[in-house]
Amino acid sequence: MPVSDTVHIQLPGDRRYEIRIGAGLLDSSDAWHGLPRAAAAVIVSNETVAPLYAGRLRERLQQVYGRVDLVVLPDGEQHKGWESLNRICDHLLGAAMDRKTVLFALGGGVIGDMTGFAAAIYMRGVPFVQVPTTLLAQVDSSVGGKTAINHPLGKNMLGAFYQPERVIADLDTLDTLPDRELRAGLAEVIKYGPIADALFLDWIDANLDALLARDKGVLAHAVRRSCEIKALVVGQDEREQGLRAILNFGHTFGHAIEAGLGYGAWLHGEAVACGMVLAADLSHRLGLVPADAVLRLRALIERAGLPLRPPQLGVDRYLQLMRVDKKAEAGAIRFVLLEAVGRAGLHAVPDAVIAEVLQAHGAA
Ligand SMILES: NC(=O)c1ccc[n+]([C@@H]2O[C@H](COP(=O)([O-])OP(=O)(O)OC[C@H]3O[C@@H](n4cnc5c(N)ncnc54)[C@H](O)[C@@H]3O)[C@@H](O)[C@H]2O)c1
Ligand SMILES: O=C(O)C(=O)C[C@@H](O)[C@H](O)[C@H](O)COP(=O)(O)O
Ligand SMILES: [Zn+2]
Questions:
Q1: What pathway does the UniProt record associate with this protein (predicted)?
Q2: Exposure on the CB side of residue 145, measured as CA atoms within 13 A
């Protein structure tokens, strides 16, 4: 019997769902009990993940649903757009799926975000379940209900807040994850330390080698603690009216890097890692944290094998890209900055200071 942990996320209006975390969950009937009843389920996955895991998921779902379809999308951040979203909707309509049909997102954050968005808009909303198979998706994207596709002018610009029925994170799926993707997932794990939990940052520091070596017990703790922090934040501010923005630490620069280079050139986690170094430095330059807080974060990100040096897009291009960030207000770019190790907040930053940081890090 696989061992599993459950993190609960509690939302306004007495809405709640479970995040099940454990090794072997794809083969455990327990994790799949009590899902919404329907005539049909549709698994949405991609050409890399489907051959690895869709067969087992389909077998499991066939015990519950009379019909289980599979939609296989092309792999990659560059496919997180209208075309893939249409492919999902075309399948649902072509197969005359009714409004009780349950969608299952089997894959990383790209599949999760697009499947969630399709679930939000198909017949004005059908239930969906997140089955995250990357570290990044298990610690972050499968939880909290941000769903979206990209636009060439900006990351995740078209989407909806729409919560899943459940998250089922089978740690065994991480066995097949390429090292580069594991490291990218670690970026979002590291993020939770500086923004919300200094002790977790110490723990990550102490356990980084074990995380990189894929020690299952250590990975299980990283996923559980990350989900606990995210669930606490989202539970207090589901639609990012305030507090939730802290989860965007490193993302203002990060999203500019992703869009500026063309989606897929850098992985999301890589861009966020580099963005966190820049945002930490901004925090220091504005007098919010001492220099050693920046150096410590930088050293951890370097040890995790993540990039420190931003691409040379030039200051003007960075500013242009960041002005469409969802946190910007009345043309002012706002950053999540560290206020202490373990605490963050939103701050408007003058263009001149942003330019200074970009220049100092070789991005100009
Ligand atoms: N909604 C949110 O709150 C949220 C949070 C963080 C990130 N995101 C989004 O998530 C996306 C990044 O997610 P990601 O890092 O998971 O990238 P991804 O979905 O592109 O997956 C990374 C790669 O790993 C492959 N893969 C997935 N599972 C695998 C497995 N078990 N074995 C082998 N290969 C596997 C995928 O096919 C892909 O090539 C970005 O689009 C980002 O914007 C969303
Ligand atoms: O859940 C959130 O809130 C986050 O900000 C988590 C981020 O890691 C994630 O990349 C998210 O998709 C970014 O949101 P966006 O609103 O900036 O597109
Ligand atoms: Zn992110």
A1: Metabolic intermediate biosynthesis; chorismate biosynthesis; chorismate from D-erythrose 4-phosphate and phosphoenolpyruvate: step 2/7
A2: 25
